[in-house]
Amino acid sequence: MLYVKAPAKINLTLDVLHKRPDNYHEVEMIMTTVDLADRIGLMETERGIHIESADRFVPNDSRNLAYQAAKLLKDTYHIKSGVIIKLDKQIPVAAGLAGGSSDAAATLKGLNKLWNLNLSLDELAELGTKIGSDVAFCVYGGTALAKGRGEIIQQLPAPPNCWVILAKPTIGVSTAEVYGAFDVNKAEHPNTQKMIEAIENKDYAGVCANLGNALESVTLSLYPEVAQIKDQMKKFGADAVLMSGSGPTVFGLVQQEARIPRIYNGLRGFCAEVYAVRLVGERDPLA
Ligand SMILES: C[C@](O)(CO)[C@H](O)COP(=O)(O)OP(=O)(O)OC[C@H]1O[C@@H](n2ccc(N)nc2=O)[C@H](O)[C@@H]1O
Ligand SMILES: Nc1ncnc2c1ncn2[C@@H]1O[C@H](COP(=O)(O)OP(=O)(O)OP(=O)(O)O)[C@@H](O)[C@H]1O
C-alpha cells in the first residue's frame, strides 16, 4: 500500500472580482496548508476504481473527487490496472478546508508514482484543474496566491509560524450556493497586496490585520451560527479570526501556545469539531 498525505488549506484572503461568462467567479486568494490531513492509501488491483471510507458523508462512487482523479489519470494515460483507494478522513467534509480537493491532489500524486507516469507537479496541477478549482493549489501545497478561478498558482513564502484553531459548526456548506448568492456590489475586498507583503516580511501582526474573505458575509447571512463562532473565538483570545473558503469553518490565529487551551475548551462547549493545528506554509519537499 502506498500512503499519501492530503493536508487541509485555509484562505488567508479570498477576493471575488467578478462573475465570468463560464459562470465561475474570477478570484484572487492566498491559501496556505495546515497540519490537519487525510491519509490516502493506494493499492494496485486488476481493474476498476474502488473507494473505501468509513466516513458516512463521503461518497464511495464517481462523485468522490479521489475517484475522479484516478479515472482522469487512467483514461488519459490508458492505464489497464485498477486501484483501491482507502480514504482515512480527518478533514471535516464540506467545511471550506478543501478536503475533497486535497484527496484528489494526493491521489494524482500517489498514482503518478504507483503507475510510474513521471508527470511533473505542473502537469498534475493542470490535470487537477479539470476536477475542481482548488485541486491545482492542493497539488503544490505550501502557500500561494491563486488567480483565475483558483487554478493559476504563484508560490509564496511560508507565513510567520503560528497555531491555527479550526472550528466547524455542524452544518455543511455548498460552495456553489455561496458563490450563487454573492453580490459583487455588496462585497468587501481584502487587500491581497498587503497580505503578500506581510507574508514576505514574516510580519505576524500584518497577517492578522489583513485577513479578509469576500464570501464571509454571504455565508454569515445564510448561517448566523458562523458569526457566533467568530465572536466566541475572538472573546476566548485568538489574535485574528476569519471564515475559510466558502465556509462554514472558522479559523483563529494564535501565536502564544499558552492561550490555546482556553480557546479550544471554550469552543468545545458548543462546537463539536474543534482542532488546534500548526500552519505548515512550506511545500512538502517529498511530495
Ligand atoms: C471557495 C474555495 O474553496 C476557496 O478556496 C474555492 O473558490 C472553490 O473551489 P472548489 O470547491 O474546488 O470549487 P469547484 O468544485 O471548482 O466549483 C464548485 C462551484 O463553485 C462555484 N465557483 C467555484 C470557483 C470559482 N472561482 N467560482 C465559482 O463560482 C461554481 O458555481 C462551481 O460550480
Ligand atoms: N474525497 C472526498 N472527501 C470529502 N468530500 C468529498 C470527497 N469527494 C467528493 N466529496 C463531496 O464533496 C462535497 C464537498 O466536500 P469538501 O470536503 O471537498 O468541501 P470543502 O472543504 O468545502 O471544499 P472546498 O474548500 O474545496 O470548497 C461533499 O459534500 C462530498 O459529498
Q: What separation lies between the terminal Cα atoms?
A: 16 Å
User: Would you state the CATH class of the largest domain?
Assistant: Alpha Beta
Task: Outline the biggest β-sheet.
Answer: 7 strands, mixed
Hetero groups bound? Answer: 4-diphosphocytidyl-2-C-methyl-D-erythritol, adenosine-5'-triphosphate
β content, as a range? 25-35%
Count of individual domains:
2
- Give the overall shape, derived from the CA principal axes: globular
CATH-derived architecture of the largest domain: 2-Layer Sandwich
CATH topology of the largest domain: Ribosomal Protein S5, domain 2
> Which regions are unreliable across 5 or more consecutive residues at pLDDT < 50?
none
Which series of helices and strands comes N to C?
EEEHEHHHEEEHHHEHHEEHE
Helix content: 25-40%
What is the radius of gyration computed over CA atoms, rounded to a whole number of angstroms? 18 Å
Mean pLDDT: 96
Judged by helices, strands and strand pairing, the structural class is alpha+beta
Beta-strand segment tally: 11
Tally of alpha and pi helices: 10
